[in-house]
Design goal:
The complex is a heterodimer.
Chain A: H1 3-8, H2 12-15, H3 18-29, H4 34-44, H5 48-57, E1 69-74, H6 77-81, H7 86-96, E2 109-114, E3 126-128, E4 131-133, H8 138-150
Parallel strand pairs in A: 1-2
Antiparallel strand pairs in A: 1-3, 3-4
Helix pairs in contact in A: 3-4, 4-5
Chain B: H1 18-23, H2 28-36, H3 39-49, H4 61-67, E1 77-82, H5 91-98, H6 100-114, E2 118-123, H7 128-143, E3 159-164, H8 174-181, E4 205-209, H9 210-222, H10 224-228, E5 238-245, E6 251-256, H11 261-268, E7 278-282, E8 291-292, H12 302-307, E9 316-321, H13 326-340, H14 346-363, H15 371-382, H16 390-394, H17 396-415
The chains are: A alpha+beta, B alpha/beta.
The structure holds flavin mononucleotide (FMN), iron/sulfur cluster and FE2/S2 (inorganic) cluster.
C-alpha cells in the first residue's frame, strides 16, 4: 500500500495527536530534524509531508536546531509603548552577538522576536524557554544573561 | 462599587485549586444545572441572560446553543477557545491560571445543554503555566466526579482533554482552531457550514471563548434576570477589561459592560503615566479601530463602540499618550498581521505586506505623496475580500489612524520625520 493511501484511511483521531507528538519529538530530539519528522510520521501513520506541513505552520515547532536558552522578546504595541521591544532587542543582539531566529556562536542562546505574549500588564515582557518575565529593564536583563551564561 | 463576579476568586490564596473553589461554593452551579434543569431550559436561560461571546465577535451565546442540532443520536462536541493572542489582551491567561474551575463548570453546563459528550480545550502554546493549570484542574474535576461517566449520578457522561497550540494567532479563529485540533495547519475553513453544523471531525461543535463560558455558572446560580440587569440594553453582564500602555496601573479590571472608557482609564487604571495627556485609545484589542482622546466618554459596550466607529472586540484597551506616533502604532500592529496571516488568500497574505511596506516607509521618512491614498485603497480592497475575518481586522489600524490622524501621516510624508514631540 502506498503511504498516501495508508494515511487517507488512517483514523483522523490519530492525526489529531500530531501537535502533541511533535512536542514530544521536539523535546526528545531538541528540534524537528528530518529523522524526528519521520519517526512521528511512522508512529501516527502519516506521510512525512503531512507531518512537515503541519510542523512548518507553527512557530513553536523548530525545524532547525536552536540554542539551549530561547529568549523571546515581545515587540507588541503595549510593550513598545512602555520602552520595550527595540531597546531590548538591540541590547540582546549586541550582548549575545545574535540576530532574530539565530543561535549565538556558542549555541547557547537563540533570539526570537515575538508578538504579544498576553502579558501586556507586565510590559515589557520576555520569555526564556517556557518561563515568562515581566517589567523587564536592561539592568534586570543584564543580570539574567550573566546568570544564564554562567550555567552550562 | 461593582462586586467582581468572574474574578471574585482570583485574589484568594491557591485560587486555582479545586479545594479553594469548592470551599467557595464551587460546582454548585453544575449540580443545580444537571439536576434541576432540562437542556432546553438551560438554553432558554442563556438566551434570556443576553450573554454575548467574549472572544471578539459578540455573537449571542444562547442563540448559538440553539443552532446545535437536537438529534440525540448525533455525537456533539464543545470546543473551548483559550488561544488568546490579540495584542493588548490578557484576560484569558489570567482566568486559566487563576480560576480554571469556573470555566470547567461552564463547559460542563454548556455540554449538557447542547448534548455534547466530548469537550476539547485548545490553549495557546505559549501559555505554559496555563497548560499546567488546565491539566491539573481537569484531573481534579475527574477525581471529584464532575467529569467522566455518570456525572453526579445523573447518567450524563462528559470527557474533556487539553490540546496545546503551537504559536499561530490565526488558530484563535474558530475554524482554524478546529483544523489545528485535527492536527493540521491552522488554515480557516469556509463558512457556512458553521461549526454548529459541521465542526470538529465533521461533528456539530459549539465553540466558545473561556470568558463566555466562565459567565455560565453564575447565570445558573443567580438567574438570567440578574445577569441581564448588569450592563446596557444590548450588552449584558460583567466583562474583564485588560488595560495596558501608558497608564499608571495596567491590569485586568472586571466591570459591567457599559462602563465609561474614561472611568476605566482614569479611575481604575490610575490615569496616564507622568501626567501626560491622553491622545488615542484602542478599545478592544489591536485589531479594533483607534479612538481619539475626545471619544473617551464612550461606554464600553458592543453597540456604543460600534456607533463610535470601533468595536468592543476582546476588551483589550491600549492607552496612548500625547507622545505616541500614530504611524508607528499602525506600522507595528500591521507587522503583527503580516506575520500572522495564514497565507491562504492573496488579499491578506500580500495585501497586509504591501500595507506594511507603505506604513514602514512613511514612518521612516521615506513616504511619497499618494501613500495615504494608496494605503486607503489597499485597505478597501482587503476588507471583506478575504477568506476569514482577519482581512477586515488587519486594515483597521492603518485605516483608522489615517481617518483620525491624517495630518500626522502628511507630516511624515512632507517633513520626513515624526510629528513634533512624538516618536
Ligand atoms: C483572526 C481571529 C482571531 C481570533 N482569535 C480568538 C482568540 O484568540 N480567542 C477567542 O476566544 N476567539 C478568537 N476569535 C473569535 C473566534 O473565531 C470565535 O468567534 C470565538 O471563539 C467564539 O466564542 P464566543 O462566542 O464565546 O466569543 C478570533 C477570530 C478571528 C477572526
Ligand atoms: S484572511 Fe488571512 S488569515 Fe484568513 S484565511 Fe485569508 S490569509 Fe488566512
Ligand atoms: S504587547 Fe508585549 S505582552 Fe502584549
Amino acid at each position: 500500500m502506498l503511504p498516501q493511501t495508508k494515511s487517507r484511511i488512517a483514523n483522523p483521531k490519530s492525526r489529531a495527536m500530531l501537535l502533541a507528538a511533535l512536542y514530544i519529538a521536539q523535546e526528545q530530539y531538541g528540534w524537528l530534524s528530518p529523522e524526528a519528522i519521520q519517526r512521528v510520521a511512522d508512529r501516527l501513520n502519516l506521510t512525512p509531508g503531512q507531518v512537515h506541513s503541519t510542523a512548518s505552520f507553527y512557530t513553536m515547532f523548530k525545524l532547525q536546531p536552536h540554542g539551549k536558552y530561547r529568549i523571546q522578546i515581545c515587540e507588541g504595541l503595549s510593550c513598545y509603548l512602555v520602552g520595550g521591544a527595540e531597546p531590548i532587542i538591540e541590547y540582546i543582539t549586541k550582548r549575545l552577538n545574535i540576530i532574530d531566529g539565530d543561535a549565538s556562536p556558542n549555541g547557547k542562546f537563540t533570539l526570537e522576536i515575538v508578538q504579544c505574549l498576553a502579558a501586556c500588564d507586565l510590559a515589557p515582557a520576555i520569555k526564556v524557554n517556557d518561563e515568562l518575565y515581566g517589567n523587564i529593564s536592561l539592568e534586570r536583563l543584564d543580570e539574567f544573561i550573566s546568570k544564564l551564561s554562567a550555567l552550562d | 462599587m461593582f462586586e467582581p463576579i468572574l474574578t471574585q476568586n482570583i485574589n484568594r490564596p491557591d485560587s486555582e485549586k479545586i479545594s479553594t473553589y469548592l470551599a467557595n461554593g464551587g460546582y454548585e452551579a453544575t449540580r443545580l444545572a444537571l439536576t434541576k434543569y432540562s437542556p432546553e431550559e438551560l438554553i432558554e436561560m442563556v438566551k434570556r441572560s443576553g450573554l454575548r461571546g467574549r472572544g471578539g465577535a459578540g455573537f449571542p451565546a444562547g442563540i448559538k446553543w440553539g443552532f446545535m442540532p437536537k438529534d440525540a443520536r448525533l455525537q456533539k462536541i464543545v470546543a473551548v477557545n483559550t488561544d488568546e493572542g490579540e495584542p493588548g489582551t490578557f484576560k484569558d491567561r489570567q482566568i486559566v491560571e487563576r480560576d480554571p474551575h469556573q470555566v470547567i463548570e461552564g463547559v460542563i453546563i454548556a455540554s449538557y445543554a447542547v448534548g455534547a459528550s466530548r469537550a476539547y480545550v485548545y490553549i495557546r502554546g505559549e501559555f505554559f503555566l496555563g497548560v499546567k493549570r488546565w491539566i491539573k484542574a481537569i484531573a481534579d474535576a475527574y477525581e471529584h466526579g464532575f467529569l467522566g461517566k455518570n456525572l453526579l449520578g445523573t447518567g450524563y457522561d462528559l470527557d474533556i482533554s487539553v490540546h496545546r497550540g503551537a504559536g499561530a494567532y490565526i488558530c484563535g479563529e474558530e475554524t482554524a482552531m478546529l483544523e489545528s485540533l485535527e492536527g493540521k495547519p491552522g488554515n480557516p475553513r469556509l463558512k457556512p457550514p458553521y461549526p454548529a453544523q459541521i465542526g470538529l471531525f465533521g461533528l456539530p461543535t459549539l465553540v466558545h471563548n473561556i470568558e463566555t463560558l466562565a459567565c455560565i455558572p453564575h447565570i445558573v446560580l443567580r438567574g438570567a434576570e440578574w445577569f441581564a440587569n448588569i450592563g446596557t440594553t444590548e450588552s449584558k453582564g460583567p466583562k474583564i477589561f485588560s488595560v495596558s500602555g501608558h497608564v499608571n496601573r495596567p491590569g485586568n479590571y472586571e466591570l459591567p459592560l457599559g462602563t465609561m472608557l474614561s472611568d476605566i482609564i482614569f479611575e481604575h487604571a490610575g490615569g496616564l503615566r507622568d501626567n501626560k495627556m491622553l491622545k488615542a485609545i484602542i478599545p478592544g484589542g489591536a485589531s479594533t479601530p483607534v479612538l481619539t482622546a475626545d471619544q473617551v466618554e464612550t461606554p464600553m459596550a458592543f453597540e456604543t463602540l460600534e456607533r463610535a466607529g470601533s468595536q468592543l472586540g476582546t476588551g483589550g484597551i491600549i492607552v496612548m499618550d500625547e507622545t505616541t506616533c500614530m504611524v508607528e502604532t499602525a506600522r507595528r500592529i500591521t507587522k503583527f498581521f503580516v506575520h500572522e496571516s495564514c497565507g491562504r488568500c492573496v488579499p491578506c497574505r500580500i495585501g497586509s505586506l504591501r500595507l506594511f511596506e507603505i506604513l514602514e516607509r512613511v514612518e521612516q521618512g521615506m513616504g511619497i505623496p499618494g501613500d495615504i491614498e494608496r494605503a486607503l485603497y489597499l485597505s478597501q480592497n482587503i476588507d471583506g475580500r478575504t477568506f476569514c475575518p482577519m482581512g477586515a481586522a488587519l486594515v483597521n489600524p492603518a485605516r483608522s489612524t489615517i481617518l483620525k490622524f491624517r495630518e500626522e501621516y502628511e507630516y511624515h510624508i512632507h517633513e520626513k520625520k515624526c510629528a513634533p514631540n512624538t516618536n
